[in-house]
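> forwarded from #structure-qc
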């Protein structure tokens, strides 16, 4: 391993430039806090993400090569590295309106599933099939979202409420649709279609704009070949421009075709049933054929190409990117004109045919999730890794959760809008039966989740009780304060609940699959049961479903408000970001490989930033570099190190603390952060030190020899001492620098790199590499 030799005994003949690049974590911070100096200067970057240095250190690290070729400039210091702070918090924070990204949570979740495939080196076809199935699941979610918008705007509002005089009297803003030129159902549908069309246009605009702002940063050109151990080292990993543009075009077209189908099929059904004009009947059949052809084209584009990571792919499939959305928009315009054509005697009654649409989407999503589970299990058996979440089934479980989120949100919102429009009158048919049944399963799913959480909490308290004696023994107290002991033991037990997340995800996913299947069957049976035949057991089930539906519709409304509230707090309040930000930052760390409308990937800006800074500095100075990352910053640091060429990587050392790189990323994304990938990174970089606490719910060991230190004590002292006359707090995931051992570990790492003198006995003997422990 590079750098394993004995450090130089004396100062070098010429100073060697050294840099310590600090990368903060989820909570975000300021360069002044990171550098512990009120006077900082921006070295490079912009208002979104930048590198800062202390004002006194601006000319202290030899950033440019000596014109005579001697390496670093004469004033480069060898006694300590010059610290720099990379501040990227503006990539994931902003004003409160960005909380609306939380409404696209199903898109982010399904995009996560793409990166959760098992770490199988064999079976290229199976790997491609895995990605294809995830992209199809993502496409179904777009269709589901737009179909739900059509259900609210077209069916419930324009078709049912605007076609019922009693409902129009209750909602006077719909009065202009009651009679007159707009009284024709087709024209009302054409007007209401502008709402879901505007939603699709907004999604396209956000995806295009955020791509330019976040993900259009071109990675550093590579001259070496990509490593085979992890995909994160591939030159084109952080530049998925071609695939995102194709998927954006396909999903935009799918949304527009969904709106066109909702409007056009309603008019075509009337023409077939009532025997309208021959020309309209022919146009209806032509429109249906065109819609089917458009759907086939969309599916072909989604299935036709995956990610290109082996090289930087600047090519754009312009014939697809431009023609597919424009063609779909033309089909939508044709359907609007067709529906708005005058049809004497056409009145709106009942519901639009939404049961078939939502039922078909639910069946397709269930089939895709099951097929994905089969493929994932096959990949796992080729290269099993016992640390993988759910033994390779993490991706399928997350896909099921994404589909369940989409279905629950669609059913709950539709039912809530129906209740608002209808009030207590009961004059509207309401949403499709399937959406009503889906809303009814929300309380059942919530009960399962709460029951499991209660069980895990009870077990955590039992483990905390069992650890109390070990805590007192560790701190060397015989009869300690019971409250203090209990608090420390509970903090450790609650932090360990992170390792039980696969169980929670697996049980919740299985419950949603079973209950979702029951909802489809219930909707099918209730739709075929004659009026008055609902007796006995079926009457009880139907009554329970109605109670669940009413409760579920209110729960989804409450959840909507909570999403927005939490989102605003997460973007505005740093303390809230530390609580829920890690889940959001894990989701937006990964590129948009399955769903183009998912929230933007900040790492496609941050990783190239770090790679460019590290490479240009090491090549200009020939010096050593330590990249120090906390929490999510450690993941960015590792991802940037993988993007370096081997010669540059060998001059870089890693210092990580509170790092989820193995505990979360290694378990849930084994193909990219698995044991082999982490081991290869450890062998390639100069040194790697990892610090963690047992009370940290996020950070943990990386499980590599000579990398992990003995866990930091938390709190620093059990009781009051001379150095700590006041009770020491439990720090958990924050303030690692507050522990004196952090400074010792950092100094020890720098000494082993030949940067500064190492004081004998300075580091904990259990924390130094194995070869240094030999006599």
């Amino acid at each position: 391993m590079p750098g394993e030799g004995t450090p130089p005994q004396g100062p070098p003949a010429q100073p060697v430039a050294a840099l310590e690049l600090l990368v903060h974590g989820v909570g975000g911070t300021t360069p002044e806090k990171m550098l512990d100096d009120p006077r900082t200067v921006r070295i490079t970057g912009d208002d979104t993400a930048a590198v800062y240095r202390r004002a006194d250190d601006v000319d202290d690290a030899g950033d440019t090569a000596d014109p005579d070729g001697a390496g670093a400039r004469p004033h480069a210091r060898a006694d300590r590295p010059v610290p720099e702070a990379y501040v990227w918090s503006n990539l994931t924070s902003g004003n409160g309106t960005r909380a609306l990204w939380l409404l696209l949570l199903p898109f982010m979740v399904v995009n996560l599933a793409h990166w959760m495939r098992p770490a199988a080196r064999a079976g290229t076809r199976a790997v491609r099939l895995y990605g294809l199935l995830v992209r199809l699941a993502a496409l179904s979610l777009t269709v589901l979202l737009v179909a739900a918008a059509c259900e609210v705007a077209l069916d419930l509002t324009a078709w049912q409420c605007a076609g019922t005089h009693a409902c129009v009297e209750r909602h006077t803003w719909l009065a202009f649709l009651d009679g007159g030129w707009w009284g024709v159902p087709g024209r009302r549908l054409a007007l209401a279609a502008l709402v879901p069309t505007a939603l699709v246009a907004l999604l396209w605009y956000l995806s295009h704009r955020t791509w330019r702002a976040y993900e259009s940063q071109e990675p550093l050109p590579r001259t070496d070949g990509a490593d085979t151990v992890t995909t994160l080292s591939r030159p084109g990993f952080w530049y998925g421009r071609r695939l995102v543009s194709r998927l954006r075009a396909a999903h935009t077209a799918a949304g527009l075709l969904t709106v066109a189908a909702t409007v056009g099929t309603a008019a075509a059904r009337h023409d077939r049933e009532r025997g309208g004009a021959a020309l309209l009947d022919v146009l209806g059949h032509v429109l249906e054929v065109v819609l089917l052809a458009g759907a086939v084209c969309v599916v072909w584009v989604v299935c036709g190409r995956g990610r290109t990571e082996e090289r930087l792919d600047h090519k754009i499939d312009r014939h697809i990117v431009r023609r597919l959305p424009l063609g779909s928009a033309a089909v939508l315009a044709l359907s609007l004109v067709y529906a708005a054509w005058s049809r004497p005697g056409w009145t709106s009654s009942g519901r639009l045919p939404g049961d078939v649409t939502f039922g078909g989407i639910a069946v397709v999503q269930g089939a895709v999730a099951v097929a994905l589970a089969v493929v994932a299990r096959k990949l796992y058996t080729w290269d099993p890794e016992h640390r993988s979440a759910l033994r390779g089934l993490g991706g399928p479980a997350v896909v099921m959760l994404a589909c369940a989120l989409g279905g629950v949100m669609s059913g709950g919102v539709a039912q809530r809008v129906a209740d608002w429009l209808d009030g207590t009158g009961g004059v509207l048919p309401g949403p499709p039966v399937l959406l009503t049944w889906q809303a009814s399963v929300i309380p059942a799913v919530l009960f399962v989740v709460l029951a499991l959480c209660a069980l895990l909490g009870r077990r955590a308290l039992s483990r905390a009780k069992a650890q109390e004696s070990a805590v007192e023994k560790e701190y060397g107290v015989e009869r300690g304060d019971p409250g203090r002991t209990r608090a420390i033991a509970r903090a450790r037990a609650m932090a360990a609940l992170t390792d039980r997340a696969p169980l929670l995800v697996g049980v919740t996913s299985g419950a949603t699959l079973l209950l979702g299947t029951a909802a489809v069957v219930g909707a099918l049976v209730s739709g075929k049961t004659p009026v008055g035949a609902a007796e006995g057991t079926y009457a009880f089930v139907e009554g329970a479903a109605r109670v669940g539906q009413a409760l579920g519709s209110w729960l989804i409304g409450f959840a909507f408000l909570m999403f927005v509230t939490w989102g605003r707090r997460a973007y505005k309040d740093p303390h809230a970001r530390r609580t829920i930000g890690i889940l959001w930052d894990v989701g937006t760390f990964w590129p948009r490989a399955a769903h183009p409308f998912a929230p933007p990937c900040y790492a496609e800006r941050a990783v190239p930033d770090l790679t460019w800074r590290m490479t240009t500095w090491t090549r200009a100075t020939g010096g050593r570099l330590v990249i120090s990352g906390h929490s999510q910053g450690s993941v960015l640091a590792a991802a940037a190190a993988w993007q370096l060429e081997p010669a540059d990587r060998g001059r870089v050392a890693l210092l990580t603390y509170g790092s989820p790189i193995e505990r979360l990323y290694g378990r849930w994304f084994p193909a990219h952060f698995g044991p082999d990938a982490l081991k290869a990174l450890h062998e390639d970089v100069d040194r790697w030190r990892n610090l963690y606490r047992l009370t940290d719910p996020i950070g943990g060991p990386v499980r590599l020899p000579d990398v992990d230190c003995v866990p930091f004590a938390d709190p620093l002292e059990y009781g009051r001492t001379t150095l700590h006359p006041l009770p020491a707090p439990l720090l958990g995931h924050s303030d690692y620098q507050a522990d004196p051992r952090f400074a010792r570990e950092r100094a020890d790492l720098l000494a082993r790199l030949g940067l500064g003198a190492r004081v004998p006995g300075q580091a904990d003997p259990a924390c130094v590499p194995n070869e240094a422990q030999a006599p």
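QC bot note: The first strand starts at residue 18 and ends at 23. The longest helix spans residues 124-161.
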